[in-house]
Write a structure and sequence with these properties.
By secondary structure, this protein is an all-beta fold. The protein is 0% helix and 50% strand. The chain has no helices and 11 strands. The protein has strands spanning 2-6, 9-12, 17-24, 32-38, 45-51, 57-60, 68-73, 78-83, 92-99, 114-115, 119-124. Strand 5 (45-51) and strand 6 form a beta hairpin. The protein is globular and about 40 Å long.
Length: 125
């Protein structure tokens, strides 16, 4: 399984970006999907997850609730992260990840099996 993230860039505060992550080598519907980010000098942190094991639920870090949305198109094997009202503190490398398990620990990167290469998002004030 491989994940390819794209869509990052440099924007102004208040702008929007949509990140995409294409999964290859298997079917997206077999995985719970998550987005994490790593800001300079900080550890990688949970951003959002879409859990489809025994149901369908989305989860967000408090810092992005109400501004970010996660969605998926299983036909395209793609998961998206829509980021609105971006702030300078959203600046980070964003990673998508796939979890083949139950999704119970969607905010813990240790439970994800596959990772994309990351895409840089820079938000200037």
């Amino acid at each position: 399984v491989q994940l390819q993230a794209s869509g990052g860039g440099s924007v102004q505060a208040g702008d929007s970006l949509r990140l995409s992550c294409v999964l290859s080598g298997n079917t997206l519907s077999n995985y719970n999907m998550g987005w994490f980010r790593q800001a300079p000098g900080k550890e990688r942190a949970f951003v959002a997850a879409h859990v489809t094991y025994s149901g369908d639920s989305t989860h967000f870090a408090d810092s992005v609730k109400g501004r970010f949305a996660i969605s998926r198109d299983d036909a395209k094997n793609t998961v998206y992260l829509q980021m609105n009202s971006l702030k300078p503190e959203d600046t980070a490398v964003y990673y998508c990840a796939a979890d083949a398990g139950t999704g119970s620990y969607y905010d813990n990167q240790k439970f994800y099996d596959y990772w994309g290469q990351g895409t840089q998002v820079t938000v200037s004030s």
